[in-house]
Design goal:
With about 375 residues, the chain is an alpha/beta fold. It is built from 15 helices and 13 strands. It has an 8-stranded mixed β-sheet, sandwiched between helices. The protein has a 5-stranded parallel β-sheet with strand order 9-13-12-10-11. Helix 3 packs parallel to helix 4 and helix 3 crosses helix 9.
Length: about 375
């Protein structure tokens, strides 16, 4: 039963009313990522009364998250983000049904996850997942609300909404080719103003509400950019063109065979991707060294012997590495594959070079379980 008192102030809005509220109550929204963008998205959709919300994230809360991931407190450090988010959101609005999925979205599980929801919201921070979501939503014809942040700037767009001519824009129309690994630093390297994810995440939640209720004009086939230092804002039309690249999946079968790590340059010939289990087995073997390419202040630290050389200093300091077997690690696996490629080019084929897939985030998740 709809509790009209809880939503009284938006029901009273001209052009909104009880019917729009009922649409929200019956809607199903999937939020991929419960970090800086996901926190405000989840809070505002919960407060607005979206009836069913799925939350996908495999990460654990760390101290460095707290300046921007406002669902969490210091007491939550070490907890799964999905579980901590569920506790807060359920207290905020017990009328909403939540489904928490404490794993990463992959080609194996994406179709089943996405098929159950009306609107998908991309709150991720890596290119393989963005391209994966774009392809899956395009194939399944699901609206995708995109958001991205970088230092002081943010972007918002809505994909897979057909215009009057029957065309819909996609993330691939905006960015046909993934950037080279390391070309676009993440917030671990470049930093981010804490309020920026709040601004962009709130806009993403707004777009989702507009899509569900039919109010206003969504950012369909458009990209909005904002710089919070000077409030320069722009809205661009995204070309709505048919995708024809043979390397792009156009069916569920093609999608499930797609390797997005390889597609985004995060896998290379001769560099082994190793799992947390394999890492724990190999890290302390004779003639093996673990190389951490994060910045020195990044947490958590590894609890085994390792060498620390930041990625930006690896070229000139690779001579510090004497071992023949090298395992490169970073926070999420993006810098480590770049570091492994640098070492491969410098050291040559006589060295065995691996990198920890998913990084220390993935390692900690497996260790907790």
């Amino acid at each position: 039963m709809l509790n009209s008192e809880r939503y009284d102030r938006q029901i009273k809005l001209q052009g909104f009313g009880i019917e729009a509220q009922r649409k929200l109550t019956s809607a199903r929204v999937l939020v991929i990522g419960a970090g800086g963008l996901g926190c405000p998205v989840l809070q505002y959709l919960t407060a607005a009364g979206v009836g069913n919300i799925g939350i996908v994230d495999e990460d654990y809360i760390s101290l460095s998250n707290l300046h921007r991931q406002i669902l969490y407190t210091s007491d939550d450090i070490g907890k799964l983000k999905t579980e901590a988010a569920f506790e807060r959101l359920r207290a905020m609005n017990p009328e909403v049904q939540f489904h928490i999925i404490s794993t990463r979205i992959t080609t194996e599980n994406a179709v089943n996850m996405i098929s159950e929801y009306d609107v998908i919201i991309d709150c991720t921070d890596n290119f393989p997942t963005r391209y994966l979501l774009d392809d899956a939503c395009r194939i399944l014809e699901k609206p995708l609300v995109f958001g991205a942040i970088y230092q002081y700037e943010g972007q918002v767009a809505v994909f897979n909404i057909r215009n009057k001519e029957g065309f819909a824009s996609h993330y691939r129309n905006l960015f046909p080719e993934p950037p080279e690994p390391g070309e676009v630093p993440d917030c671990n390297e470049a930093g981010v103003l804490g309020v920026l994810p709040g601004v962009i995440g709130t806009l993403q939640a707004t777009e989702a509400i507009k899509l569900i209720t039919g109010i206003g004009e969504a950012l369909a086939n458009k990209l909005m950019t904002i710089n919070v230092l000077n409030y320069q804002t722009a809205v661009f039309e995204i070309p709505s063109m048919n995708l024809t690249d043979k390397n792009i999946p156009f069916s569920i079968e093609e999608f499930e065979y797609m390797n997005y790590q390889l597609h985004c340059g995060l896998e290379y010939s001769g560099i082994k991707n190793i799992s947390p289990l394999q890492f724990n087995q190999k890290a302390t073997l004779p003639d093996t060294v673990v190389l951490d390419v994060r910045e020195p202040e990044e947490q958590p630290k590894l609890d085994l012997p390792y060498i620390s050389i930041p990625l930006s200093q690896l070229n000139e300091n690779s001579g510090q590495i004497q071992n023949r077997n090298i395992i490169v690690v970073c926070q999420s696996g993006k810098r480590s594959i770049t570091g492994a490629k640098i070492l491969q080019e410098i050291l040559g084929p006589e060295y065995s070079i691996s990198h920890l897939e998913g990084g220390i985030n993935h390692l900690n998740k497996e260790t907790h379980e």
